[in-house]
Amino acid sequence: MGTAAIIVAAGRGTRVGGPVAKQWRDLGGRSVARRAIDAFRAVGDIAPIVVVLAADDLGTAPALGDDVEIVTGGGTRAESVRAGLESLEGRGVETVLIHDVARPLVPAAVIGRVRAALEQADGAAPALTVSDALWYGTDRVTGTRDRTGLWRAQTPQGFRFAPILAAHRAHDGTAPDDVAVARAAGLEVAIVTGDEANLKITTEADFARAEKELRGDMDVRTGTGFDVHAFAEGDYVILCGVKVPHDRTLKGHSDADVGLHAVTDAIYGALADGDIGRHFPPSDPKWKGAASHVFLTHAAGRAAERGYRLSNVDCTLVCERPKIGPHAAAMAGEIARLVKVAPERVSVKATTSETLGFTGREEGIAALATVTLVAP
Ligand SMILES: Nc1ccn([C@@H]2O[C@H](COP(=O)(O)OP(=O)(O)OP(=O)(O)O)[C@@H](O)[C@H]2O)c(=O)n1
Ligand SMILES: C[C@](O)(CO)[C@H](O)COP(=O)(O)O
Fold first, then answer.
1. Which of helix, strand or coil describes residue 196?
2. Over the stretch 111-127, which tens digit does the pLDDT of each residue have?
3. What class is the 3-217 domain?
4. Closest ligand to the CA of 194
5. Of the residues 22, 65, 174, 276, which has the maximum number of CB atoms within 10 A of its CB?
6. Per residue in 43-54, pLDDT tens?
7. The domain at 219-375 falls in which architecture?
8. Ligand 2: does its nearest atom lie under 6 Å from the Cβ of 15?
9. Domains of the chain, residue spans
10. What ipTM was reported for this prediction?
């Protein structure tokens, strides 16, 4: 086995405060903890990823997904790291990257630099130089300090596994970071260049900084979809995946779910990936009578493959009848289930066209949809 990661997440986030520890708060659509994990997952060959949690948080662990191992931490950061290291003993781990969950935006390049430096050193850690002048004092300056040779330490701090485990076992469990533990054991630690994006969320203001950082890199795409189906003889319609009793049905090659078709086309549109007709040609008998969730899950899957997360969906149905209001929540829930987002990210609403036009004459139903896709 090669490189493992330990993400320490057993802190209480007291400096941020609030009812929920900072690692469980949302940061741009994912929890801080999940973002930290995903940063290491994205590298590809780091396994296992061990997340160290406070005993009180173990009930939250399933929400992290089944791609991590969970270990119970201790009362200090160093004790939590030690618990993570102990869980990896005897498993053939050669090098280990120890990272704060509170640094969820660590760039892959920083992880790469730490790993590269480890090829020639017992330990390696990212850091940035100090660019501000340094003072002593409380409310007035009582002294100054030369900043030459000072560094602002970041994580992940990487080490050869056996020496850092031995170093932690020999230490008293109070060290602020793993470089201090390594140095106390006589290990050499190389400094590699960190990144301002690798900020540590320590106070509430850091959440705003992290969100700004995320927006800087974010690729946001919007797509629109529009569809129409005509009425025919029948006694129900399927709209946004929900069967609604009606005195007509909708005609179409598939199940004629005009709502799901508009949402599906909006996703293809955001991806600049054609439309339903291109992926599911009406000329192909295979799609005759097809349930439209097949189209929507295909489009959502193509978005996920390209690294996009669906941020929100807004669908408007245009018809005089049937009345959509009583079914709107069920329709939004069905779309949310199909595209795997929280229900509050999906809106289904309706309007009449005031008896004007083909929808007003009840010749058919039209649907419009907008979706937003976000990466990373
Ligand atoms: N007993 C502890 C204490 C801290 N940590 C982790 O060590 C890192 C240190 O960052 P810090 O900002 O100090 O986190 P908290 O300890 O949560 O914050 P605070 O000091 O404000 O309570 C965090 O990832 C934190 O979860 C840990 O795993 N176990
Ligand atoms: C390890 C660390 O991230 C290095 O900067 C930092 O020391 C941990 O956080 P704390 O605020 O010192 O507890």
1. coil
2. 999 999 999 999 999 99
3. alpha beta
4. 2
5. 22
6. 889 999 999 999
7. 2-Layer Sandwich (3.30)
8. no
9. 3-217, 219-375
10. 0.96
